[in-house]
Amino acid sequence: MILAKRDGGELSDSQIDWMIAAYTQGVVAEEQMAALNMAILLNGMSRREIARWTAAMIASGERMSFDSLDRPTADKHSTGGVGDKITLPLAPLVAACGVAVPQLSGRGLGHTGGTLDKLESIPGWRASMSNEEMLAQLGSVGAVICAAGEGLAPADRKLYALRDVTGTVEAIPLIASSIMSKKIAEGTGALVLDVKVGAGAFMKTLDSATELARTMVDLGTDAGVNTIALVTDMSTPLGLTAGNAIEVAESVDVLAGGGPADVVELTVALAREMISAAGVSGPDPADVLASGKAMDTWRAMILAQGGDPSAPLPTARETHVVTAPSTGVLTRLDAMAVGLAAWRLGAGRERKEDAVQAGAGVTWHARPGDSVTAGAPLFTLHTDTPERFDRALAALEGGYEIEDGAAYEATPLILDR
Ligand code: URA
């Protein structure tokens, strides 16, 4: 099968079923699956192969059901970005609007941050929950953000960790099947996908992002999940922070009615889509955010998972400030450069067994379009291990541009639906 994909062939349905089952059981070795993934990344898969690969991943585990809840369900999934903390304010916001949110989330993948890694910086908070606990919390609080249980698409859990460290993340068949196997097995009624495009996304062009969006919407629709996708810009990182605890703090700012404008815009846009896909007509999410109700749901959600929403968040032992080399307008801030810097500071992992640092990451003090003054702070780097500063600084080199007297034209955040 490795040779067939390497040489541009197609796998049969039974070959795919066997491969996923055998890998999940440990019969196919990690290095063999890594080679097959690389062949898939390089040579692609047909629509039939993607649908079958997804079905085999769903069949590797159990399927959940939220039919016993008194409210409709909607989930959201991002294909991965830098500074993408949107799930944190979004899940409680949508729950406060009357839709239950079973948000199964992941850990960091490559240079992109993971929702669970961020939330684990909250003292006491735990990511793993049984299906019964998840259902009970959906009934009482209305929102859960947790790790997919052991039994849900176990093939994806192994594959995700393997792809993260073998350069095989950026393949449309592998991303689409990874995301959709979890979402279909989870049993959500509606699903809103945030497909990222640009320097800091796995998809670099609008064409490839649109193809990924279309592939996932088709997989969801065929499985009876009301699925829609937004294609959103990830050439610039979201908000003003990339890391773990520092992104939690920024999310809490949004829930408190503040926070960066782009984070608020995307949170509200995705909330509107989730509520409408779930078939609920209620108050506008922007008003609910302003009312403080979403903050109440956030606190209840963190408490229910053992976290202390009032506890101070961890901070890194060391910081390093990068100042602006000249005066002018910040015309470019590259999401990949920032994501790599945060990752190298310890916000992400280099090997799948590594732990992340809760306090690590990057804060930027200006966004594209802002004026900056020579010598004023442009970035603050955070880490517990200062020997990492040099590599993070190298990642940021060439990752931004300051132009004197330049007219800056802002690009839209939401590019397509
Ligand atoms: N998110 C996932 O769950 N899987 C991927 O492959 C990429 C992003």
UniProtKB/TrEMBL annotation:
<dbReference type="InterPro" id="IPR017459">
    <property type="entry name" value="Glycosyl_Trfase_fam3_N_dom"/>
</dbReference>
<feature type="domain" description="Pyrimidine nucleoside phosphorylase C-terminal">
    <location>
        <begin position="329"/>
        <end position="403"/>
    </location>
</feature>
<dbReference type="InterPro" id="IPR000053">
    <property type="entry name" value="Thymidine/pyrmidine_PPase"/>
</dbReference>
<dbReference type="InterPro" id="IPR035902">
    <property type="entry name" value="Nuc_phospho_transferase"/>
</dbReference>
<dbReference type="InterPro" id="IPR036320">
    <property type="entry name" value="Glycosyl_Trfase_fam3_N_dom_sf"/>
</dbReference>
<dbReference type="Pfam" id="PF07831">
    <property type="entry name" value="PYNP_C"/>
</dbReference>
<protein>
    <submittedName>
        <fullName>Thymidine phosphorylase</fullName>
    </submittedName>
</protein>
<dbReference type="InterPro" id="IPR036566">
    <property type="entry name" value="PYNP-like_C_sf"/>
</dbReference>
<comment type="similarity">
    <text>Belongs to the thymidine/pyrimidine-nucleoside phosphorylase family.</text>
</comment>
<keyword id="KW-0808">Transferase</keyword>
<dbReference type="InterPro" id="IPR000312">
    <property type="entry name" value="Glycosyl_Trfase_fam3"/>
</dbReference>
<dbReference type="Pfam" id="PF00591">
    <property type="entry name" value="Glycos_transf_3"/>
</dbReference>
<dbReference type="InterPro" id="IPR017872">
    <property type="entry name" value="Pyrmidine_PPase_CS"/>
</dbReference>
<dbReference type="Pfam" id="PF02885">
    <property type="entry name" value="Glycos_trans_3N"/>
</dbReference>
<keyword id="KW-0328">Glycosyltransferase</keyword>
<dbReference type="InterPro" id="IPR018090">
    <property type="entry name" value="Pyrmidine_PPas_bac/euk"/>
</dbReference>
<dbReference type="InterPro" id="IPR013102">
    <property type="entry name" value="PYNP_C"/>
</dbReference>
<comment type="subunit">
    <text>Homodimer.</text>
</comment>
